Amino acid sequence: MSIAQFFRILWARRWIILATTFVCFVAAMLVARSFPARYQASSRVMLNMFKPDPVTGEAISSGFARAYVKTQGELIRDYRIAGKVVDELGWAENPQLVAAYQRRDPSDQSDVRRWLAQQVMDNTDTKLVDTSNILEIQFTSNSPEQAARIADTVRQAYVDQALTFRRDDAANNADWFRKQATRIRAELTAAEQRKTAFERANGIVLADNDTDVDSARLTALAGAAPPQAAAQIAAAQAVASPQLESANAAIANAEKVLGPNNPELLAMKRQRDAIASTVAAAQRAVSPVAAAAGPSVASLYSAQQQKVLAQRGKVAEAQQLSTDVRVLRDQYAKTAARAAELQQQGESNETGLEMLGSAVVPTSPIFPNWPLVIFGSLGLGFALGLLASLVVELLGRRVRSAEDLTFREVPVLGVMTKAKPVRRSSLLDRLMPFRRPAVQGGY
């Protein structure tokens, strides 16, 4: 089908197109007139997604901005927000709304508050203003004043609920951390009691750096010797003391879980004895130098060294108890600080939301949109008219031009058209015969 044939069909079926277009236009106008006008008001709130919290210092990352905005939109349309709006507006006591609720579908078993809240949720929408972190809360109603009022009410209910969520979450976390702090404090008290009882039972007193008094005294005696003797004593201590301390600490820990005849414990004790032999050899090597330094210093140093070596295992266990106390004290301090921080956050009014002005009463309805109704109905009617014309033509084809009879390998022998009507001669033609055209053929 060529373009010329197509337009011939449309021209032949023009009354179908005109009728369809007219019917669609009239129907659209009647439908638009039958429904009440709808007004939409917007109330804005700024989401401080990139502003750090003044209490915790936390901020929402841009990677989670889209999910965050989607979550806030769903929260605004939640029953908790809509229910607060119903309570704030007093709709449950409104006789007209109660009468409308009583005329509802019998299959709807919801109570009046839930039914009214559903009306709020159905007419509420949210959107994020382009290239900004401003969330727009939109409400649609038959009254422009009511639309603006409810939009502001929904926003206020949303901000209040966000603050409630934030405070409840912080309070629950703070309560959990307080319980943990109480438990850790009890463990810390028990650990300090074990450490104090062990030191009292074994006569060991540890300084702040977990060094016992006897080891500190031995270090002081080593410093009182002449430089050469002190250097050899320090070298002997540097070689033997760390290994012996490590062995005694390992044995002390193993004795808590292993029996006295356990092969592993016996092997550790043999290793400790080997290290002690090395220490004794080092002492024998240092003794001449210490003796040369003076009989009093040498004897005091030797006696103190024997005392320190005899208490190595107990000192290592006391240091382990001190380490447990220090770890628990650090855990308690951090847990108590976090509980106090969450308690402060629960008392804060910061929600990360900032309300921007009040909703403006709309002056023009969003429905019916008359330009859209008029031009949309005309366009739809014209399209339906074209479709109906083509369907009618296909159901009853007619020959409208020579092109409709053009078939492959079948020539057209002739074309019969309507004869043009003979123009009657005028007075001027009668007076001037030479102007009369010659008649060719017959009628």
Automatic annotation (TrEMBL):
Per UniProt, which keywords does this protein have?
Answer: Cell membrane, Membrane, Transmembrane, Transmembrane helix
Q: Where are the transmembrane segments?
A: 370-392
Where is this protein primarily located?
membrane
Q: Where in the cell is it found?
A: Cell membrane
Sequence ranges assigned to domain Polysaccharide chain length determinant N-terminal in this UniProt record: 3-89
Topology relative to the membrane, per the entry? Answer: Multi-pass membrane protein
Q: Pfam families this protein is in?
A: Wzz
**Name this polypeptide is given:** Polysaccharide chain length determinant N-terminal domain-containing protein
